[in-house]
Structures are given as C-alpha cells and as structure tokens.
C-alpha cells in the first residue's frame, strides 16, 4: 500500500481527497501546514508528497528548497513531489521547476488528473529506488520502462 503525504491548508480539499485516496487503497496522512513536514518526512517513509504552494507560513516552493537542501546535505532521498498551485503564471512554473518539483498541477484540478500524477509519481519513485547504486545506463533503461 502506497503512503501519501497530503499538505494543504484547505480542509475542503484535503478531507474529500484524502477519503477518496483511502477508498482507492492508499494510506494518506494529511498536514495543514508545512512546519512539521521535514520532521515527519525524516521520521516516516512516504511514497509521494502532494504539496500545496500556498500555505500559512512557508510556501510549497520554500519547502521544496528545504527538502532539496536536506537531501544534498545528508543523502536522504525525498519522495516525488506533486506541487499544487492556483497561480498559472510562467514565473510560478519556473519557480516550481527550479525547486525540483517532480510534477506541477494547477488548482482547481479534478481528482482524476491528480490521481494520474500520483500514479506517475509512484512509478518515478519506484524507478529511483531501484536505480540507486546502479550504472547510469541501467538507470536510463529503468526510467524508460
């Protein structure tokens, strides 16, 4: 069973979506802010993180930079991240890419579209786990599958 961490301060989104994912067989943990995110990710394993960009406190992009720094400093591997935002500007998309968001999705989005990104993120995460320590040519082949 895949574990998903869903971070969004909008309970009208997280409640129904977490329930839908649980019905589909996922284990879902929700947070309404990013303050406890890094600690939770270091303590528990998650297969995918769904992160809203507009949270009280830090933005999703700021949180991604913290996760990237943690990964660079310690060798810890962050799970694939789906960044959600209502900002459809080119600047926002560029900031998300520079922050190494694995997937970028505009809100409001329908649940099917988000589920598709989750499945892609799960495949990406699995390929990354399998490729750690392998030859780069083998990694490329794994990702192509």
Polypeptide structure, described:
- By secondary structure, this protein is α/β, with parallel strands linked by helices.
- The protein has one domain: Rossmann fold (3-Layer(aba) Sandwich).
- Helices cover 51% and strands 17% of the residues.
- The protein is built from 6 helices and 5 strands; from the N terminus they run E-H-E-H-E-H-E-H-E-H-H.
- Strands 2-1-3-4-5 form a 5-stranded parallel beta sheet, sandwiched between helices.
- Helix 3 links the parallel strand 3 and strand 4.
- Helix 5 runs antiparallel to helix 6.
- The longest helix is centred in the C-terminal third of the chain and has 21 residues.
- It is globular and about 40 Å long.
- The protein starts with a strand and ends with a helix.
- The mean pLDDT is 85.
Helix content: 40-55%
What distance separates the N and C termini? 21 Å
Main sheet, how many strands, which sense, barrel?
5 strands, parallel
Mean pLDDT across residues? 85
Count of spatially separate domains: 1
* Total beta strand runs: 5
Helix/strand class: alpha/beta
Would you list the SSEs in sequence order as H and E? EHEHEHEHEHH
Radius of gyration: 15 Å
List the helices and strands and how they pair.
Layout: E1 3-7, H1 11-23, E2 27-31, H2 37-43, E3 48-52, H3 60-74, E4 81-85, H4 90-98, E5 103-106, H5 111-131, H6 136-144
Parallel strand pairs: 1-2, 1-3, 3-4, 4-5
